[in-house]
Input
Amino acid sequence: MLPPPAARLTMASASHRQRLATVVEHLVSSGARSVLDLGCGEGELLQRLAKYECFERLVGIDIDDRALEAARQALGLAMFPLRDERTQVRRGSFENSERDLCGFDAGVLLEVIEHVDPRRLACVERAVFGAMRPNTILVTTPNQEYNVLHDLAPGTLRHPGHHFEWPRAKFRQWAGGVASRNAYRVCFFDIGQVDPARGSTTQMARFVRRDLETTRTTA
Output
């Protein structure tokens, strides 16, 4: 039996907190000192990362001006936007490569690829994996197979802004192709309670550049 609506809302909030905590854990373990949050929204991930001294540079970009203003408020950047050189948020799109967004240790696409028109995913791949090329890239996205456990009817998306929600096989196929074409290695993780048949509510891919793995091996 499915839990009542109020309980499901609480579960969704708990899932979101767990998602953020898992991404932070992976970023810390990667040894990254600079992180690029692609589609930072209101800055929830950046707020958590700012608490860790190991991160020396944090940059978030988004195309939603209202979300960016909320992020600046939450991060204390609204009154003195140039004072904190460690943390920055600004308008930008992860469908286009910009020179100053290259060279980061890590990049994060946290619940954002499903908001992209599938016809534009190739642009995202070229910009993020082909041009910006962070050493490590984390991508999280909803697992379509788990939707029934959220009491969603078949074909119903979790958010009106989603263009798609992929089952695990489709996500792995896409991520594997991206990794192969752009010289990354990829592995996959479940975030949240795992159902034996349907996996977890959130699926994550962790990409690591192959050339850096070779350098570490031969060093």
About this structure: The chain has a mean pLDDT of 90. The longest strand covers residues 184-191.
